[in-house]
Amino acid sequence: MAKTDEAASDDAALGYEQARDELIDVVRRLEAGGTSLEESLALWERGEELAKVCRRWLEGARARLDAALADQGEAG
Fold it and tell me: What Enzyme Commission number(s) appear in the record (predicted)?
């Protein structure tokens, strides 16, 4: 299932908390069961995309923190 450019840009616009909250909901729905195989696969794929969004936010935050600490070390 190919991701459309529009859907990809929608994911890029998600904030960390929004993506995390939606991911939590996806996990709860998967854990609850009672969905068809097709729906479960769609939920899994959505969860993977949301996890990528969260990972990008966290990696960006880590890079900013590392840069700030490096700048502080050079100034000190």
Answer: 3.1.11.6
What is the distance between the alpha carbons of residues 32 and 39, in angstroms, rounded to a whole number? 13
Measured CA to CA, the distance from residue 16 to residue 39 in angstroms comes to: 24
Q: Specify the pLDDT at position 8.
A: 66
The yes-or-no verdict on residue 3 having pLDDT over 90 is no
Q: What is the pTM of this model?
A: 0.79
Domain ranges for the chain: 14-75
Q: CA 57, CA 18: separation in Å to the nearest integer?
A: 11
Distance CA 65, CA 59 (A): 10
